Amino acid sequence: MPTANILNLFDQTVYYGTLTVENGRIARVERLGPERPDEPYILPGFVDAHVHVESSLLTPPQFARLAVVHGTVATVSDPHEIGNVLGVAGVEYMLREAERVPFKFMFGAPSCVPATTFETAGATIGVRDVRYLLGLKEIGYLAEMMNFPGVLHEDPEVMAKIALANAFNKPIDGHAPGLTGADAQRYIDAGITTDHECFTYEEGLDKARRGMNILIREGSAARNFEALIPLLAEFPEQIMFCSDDKHPDTLAIGHINQLVLRALAKGHSLWNVLRAACLNPVLHYRLPVGLLREGDTADYIIVDNLQNFQIRQTVIDGQIVAEDGQSNIPDLRSQHVNQFNCEPKTADEFAVVAEAGSDQIRVIEALDGQLITNELQLTPKIINGQIIPDLEQDILKLVVVNRYQNVPPAVAFIKNVGLKHGAIASSVGHDSHNITAVGCNDESICQAINLVIEAKGGLSAVAGTPPHEHDTEIMSRRAFLHLTTTPETQLLPLPVAGLMTDTDGYDVAAQYATLDLFAKQELGSTLSAPFMTLSFMALLVIPALKLSDKGLFNGNAFTFSPLQIVK
Q: Is pTM, for the whole model, over 0.85?
């Protein structure tokens, strides 16, 4: 029966009072007097309004263990990552795992599996599957409709899935980067209510004025907070906070609480900030999350004050799930489900023969902190009739290997990754989750890919040349790793669908941080999150140029583009 300052987000008042909790619900809220600034504060818990749990590299129980420490009590979770690997069975796996811990995961029915027909996924989730999933009480919405061209052109399958969501009276999430004006209105008129892909203020403003809910995203790779946060003052009832994709090292440090502090530091109203962090997601998605009203489930956080929001306790259904920086959610092991059918590769499979009459190639320009890329047309470096990486121009080789069947790899080139030697590879490759690798030479790329194949999923890095062991921090952190590494190679296995691990989330966070540091300080990457950025280089629905297992793809024209430009 906690007694503290209680925040009422509906009438925007603070008073000193007592909550009486019985059987996991708030039985009474008693006002004892005016606010006492020297006492703690009770407020509703934070909600991540759009996240792919799989991108944390952690199973749902491990994700929850880390998230509750930061005051998060619920997530709106799109399971299309594991859906692309295992189909409906993968979604059901996430539902089962979520039930094992006291945390409020709201999962959606994936709307676009596979995301496009221009890539190879491990499964398909069709109209019949969506009908089945939407009929489950654990499924609260139709997950992000990435196929916005399908919406605009009224593709029958796309429209059938939207119609099902409307029939079940469940919200429909959007995903339409760069879409504005009349096309955005048509997308909204189809019944789509949110977008987390706005990357400019002007785009967010256009969609907000048309009634769309704008999710301000700040994840490990895509970061749109600075561009979009001015919208909070203009549209407080339409703004929510989300992470979308959050790697374990950053999740161990903070979550939605970080966006709360940043928004307050920019001078935004406390009540508007808490609407975005706590209230709007619960109301929009009809989440089973309490908001400190009598009869609500007892879901709340206790903080020291309203300046630093230091979390004293996180409470879900009346149970203290985190206290003073320590998680009370148990460290649970999970079943390892997977689909990984490709065999090890050889370096000569990644060779690119220069075509006669071609003097330029299309190069993907990676943009740090963004999912969008640019298309560059540059003069390649050619030796012995082969196009090779040009390290002086920071043009590296990018490879996508189909993990579901043995077929030749797709090869392209990318700028702005910054590696000086070696390679990195990952089986986390949105959205179909084939193996994506980038490197300075074919031998290193092959070695990094084969480490992932042999583990049947994971993140890897290889030095390519014997590294100089000059960084004591790297060496001390290597000693912490609970996996097989050498000074020349690093591997973080992901045995659950090639996307996640069920080992201790805090250990995984430290392991990932070591791998990230290796890619930056040993191999030279200039990206803030090299593995997260790499994972989006096969995401075809985000313009402008990406690489699928079938080839180089133009996300604006929605068609393949040849690597070499023949005059």
A: yes
